[in-house]
Amino acid sequence: ALVSTRQMLLDAQAGGYAVPAFNIHNLETVRVVVETAAEMRSPVILAGTPGTISYAGAKYIVDIAEAASQLHDIPIALHLDHHESFESIKALIDLGVKSVMIDGSHHDFEENIRIVSEVVKYAHARDVTVEAELGRLGGQEDDLIVDEKDALYTNPAQAAEFIERTGIDSLAVAIGTAHGMYKSEPKLDFERLAEIREQTTAPLVLHGASGIDREDIRKTIELGVTKVNVATELKIAFSDKVKEHFIDNPEANDPRKYMEPGKEAMANLIREKIDICNSANRV
Ligand code: 13P
Ligand code: ZN
Ligand code: NA
Q1: pLDDT tens for residues 146-184?
Q2: pLDDT digits 0-9 by tens, 222-249
Q3: CA dist., res. 126 & res. 17, Å (int)
């Protein structure tokens, strides 16, 4: 059965590794993620944004993930990624989702706490875990001057208060990563992350991991990150190989065949990310 992210993130915290969270979109991507994770004996998180849930259909994607969890003996969570609507989170929990992110990061501190607390109350009553974000993930934040960093990045003292007052299970931090690839070399604020770790105990989440190099991801894990979110790099790997396949085979029309190169490229990247997270052979 699908699990929450409570035990897997606490295990990762105790073991000094991270659980990878891969954004999925359909049957093919769910299968590639879980089959590769199972082959490597890694716990894994399937992440679904609101766009993915409406694209795939809530009932379809929850049931596909549930099937995956029954077919493989590794911990598998279906996690709502960057959801903002309490109503739709409730509906998805009622369909069987056990792990959610309520993203109130674009609201002010007090409003973020209010929105998140409401979700925590509903979720915890149903044994569902909650991730929330404090601070804002940027576009190109490597050029930010210190004042801007202080305004946008996660404030360590506020992080402690935020976790305490909301009761969340994990905290997404803003330390210089951004969603998508980077136009110039990202510079992560490791000192801030260390300070957040010193002032808090909840598992920490790194968003925007596509485009962050191996050593930097490893360093965030050493500093307390227990969940690493990867989306864009997987989409690029998959679609690049499908495009190549159509260029080489202009007559191709069988979805059972033309998606195979994309799936294979995605699997290779997932192996690499699991290796970076150091989550293989943990189950
Ligand atoms: P990337 O697209 O940069 O990998 O970010 C993924 C993410 O944070 C999903 O929540
Ligand atoms: Zn994210
Ligand atoms: Na990124």
Answers
A1: 667 877 999 999 999 999 999 999 999 999 999 999 999
A2: 999 999 999 999 999 999 999 999 999 9
A3: 27
List the structure tokens of 79.
């996690």
For the question of residue 81 being annotated catalytic, the response is yes
How remote is the CA of residue 266 from the centroid of ligand 3, in Å? 16
CA 59, 65, 69: angle at the middle one, nearest 5? 140
Contact 33, 9 (CB under 8 A): no
- What CA–CA distances, in Å, run from 135 to 153, 159, 208, 253? 5, 9, 14, 45
Q: Phi/psi at 91 (nearest 5 deg)?
A: -60, -40
Mean pLDDT value across the chain: 96
Q: Does the interface ipTM go beyond 0.90?
A: yes
Cβ(92)–Cβ(57) under 8 Å?
Answer: no
At 52-108, the pLDDT tens digits run 999 999 999 999 999 999 999 999 999 999 999 999 999 999 999 999 999 999 999
Give the nearest ligand 1 atom to 233 CA: 4
* Farthest-apart Cα atoms in the chain, separation: 59
Determine the distance separating the centroid of ligand 1 and the alpha carbon of 229, expressed in angstroms. 5
Position 152 scores a pLDDT of 93
CA 20 to chain centre: 7
Q: Is the CB–ligand 1 distance for residue 81 below 6 Å?
A: yes
Local structure of residue 59 (DSSP, 8 states): H
The two tokens of residue 64 are: 């596909």
